[in-house]
Structure prediction request, 303 residues.
Amino acid sequence: MTVGELLGGGWMAITRRPKELAIWSAIQLLISVAFTAAFIPYMTAMMQAQQQSLTAGAPTVPTLPAGMGVFFLAYVLILVWLLMLFTAVVRASSSNGEDTFAWLRFAGDELRLIGLGLLYIVAWIVLGTLLALLLSALIAALALGSPGAAIVVGIVFGIACFGVAVWLGVRMSLIGAVFVLERSFALRKGWQATKGHFWTLFLAYLVMSVAFIVLEVIIVAITSPGVFGNMASGGDPAQAIQRQQEMLASFTSPSIGMIIIWVVGTIVGTAAMVYYFGVIATAAVSATGYSKQDLEELGSHFE
Prediction:
């Protein structure tokens, strides 16, 4: 396993199955439209509150729309879609066959990953709480004797926690893909899959992260220029409201050019996600040592 092989696997996930990429992009576009429609009432309420605050000269609590449940439901829909897209890319990357539904499912693999996500959330909450209590007690004890030492210890502790979080993130990064490949709750095998490959995976993820940040900034700058307009308003509430109104107008009454930009941006964004998931799938297949015959058998049980 090398960084080049992993990045190449991500590229193969995009170029090898153009039909599936088109289907995934179309679904992503529909979900983006639904999310934008749910976001508009919320954004309108926030702008009205800001306008009232500017007029009254005092902060005004926004009256959130009654349909806020739809807004949060849209978030859930996005999370479910990303889960389904991830499992679809893993299936497609580990099979030479074709699939009627672009490898999209919502069945055992997806339910197992939801269970894994809940397990992660509980583990991070418990671990985070214990670390926060430990740090608070340590700083409080040191502060009584040497406040300077308490600050240094706090900084070192924070850096150490960040390093451990990165290490755990890389070590656990292939567990979800192994779940899909094994079609079981293969937690131990998923953990062992990254053994001896930490730096290769870390460097591959680092390269992708930098590239994706640059790509995301470019896409947002093109499709939603009002976001950066708000940042450039220098804290002027009037200018910020004007920028938000312009951005809202582009959502509610988009021009042909803006629609084309949205479509292209969605395709590029979907391709970026498929690339990332393809890298993880390639790493999982390589780390678990599947042979060509194994992959053919995997492909048959995915169909």
